[in-house]
Amino acid sequence: MYDYIKGTVTKITANYIVVEASGIGYKINVANPYSFSNAMQQEILLPLHQVIRDDAHVLYGFHSEDEKEVFLNLISVSGIGPTTALAIIAVDDNDGLVAAIDTSDIKYLMKFPKIGKKTAQQMILDLAGKFVDVKSDAKSPKTKAAGNEELDEAMEALLALGYKASELKKIRAFFEGTSDSAENYIKSSLKMLMK
């Protein structure tokens, strides 16, 4: 089992990043790949979790140990797999997530993709009181100028997280004509989708 990887970010896609360590490129699934844009071609230390299935060995990476802890707690809930857990983490509102679980706010939890009433209730049952001192990670925003390509990348990443194209159509229309980073588009879109 891997605990972390120290290497250089060499590729960013809508679903994953590639980190090169000792001449090997590791494909690592992350919640918001474009949040690693400012680390491109730089060495990073990335906490990891490995999931071994019959057909694949999959690596999941995180910005911090706290984010990894949230992920591990989420996948311990029946009905939540790694992809759904990443979609929940991508919202980058750990405080809101913990508050929703601790106050039994089923409506808030059901706003995440693939979370129905039964799974939301199971989250509350399994996770209430388990999160201690978990905070939202402050990630520095990119300063690079961006255009429609960044918006396209953001929409592609949101589709990969499980949101429906019909949901994203209104979001895309809202941001048309604006200029921002894919990371910021994703964060803003997720906040809008959670309302």
Automatic annotation (TrEMBL):
Entry note about domains: Has three domains with a flexible linker between the domains II and III and assumes an 'L' shape. Domain III is highly mobile and contacts RuvB.
Designated name of the protein: Holliday junction branch migration complex subunit RuvA
Function: The RuvA-RuvB-RuvC complex processes Holliday junction (HJ) DNA during genetic recombination and DNA repair, while the RuvA-RuvB complex plays an important role in the rescue of blocked DNA replication forks via replication fork reversal (RFR). RuvA specifically binds to HJ cruciform DNA, conferring on it an open structure. The RuvB hexamer acts as an ATP-dependent pump, pulling dsDNA into and through the RuvAB complex. HJ branch migration allows RuvC to scan DNA until it finds its consensus sequence, where it cleaves and resolves the cruciform DNA.
GO biological process: DNA recombination; DNA repair
Region (Domain III): 146-195
Domain of life of the source: Bacteria
Compartment(s): Cytoplasm
Keywords, in A-Z order: ATP-binding, Cytoplasm, DNA damage, DNA recombination, DNA repair, DNA-binding, Helicase, Hydrolase, Nucleotide-binding
Quaternary context: Homotetramer. Forms an RuvA(8)-RuvB(12)-Holliday junction (HJ) complex. HJ DNA is sandwiched between 2 RuvA tetramers; dsDNA enters through RuvA and exits via RuvB. An RuvB hexamer assembles on each DNA strand where it exits the tetramer. Each RuvB hexamer is contacted by two RuvA subunits (via domain III) on 2 adjacent RuvB subunits; this complex drives branch migration. In the full resolvosome a probable DNA-RuvA(4)-RuvB(12)-RuvC(2) complex forms which resolves the HJ.
Family (UniProt): Belongs to the RuvA family.
Residue ranges of every copy of the Helix-hairpin-helix DNA-binding motif class domain listed in the record: 72-91, 107-126
Principal subcellular localisation of the protein: cytoplasm
Species name: Streptococcus hyointestinalis
TM helices/strands, residue ranges: none
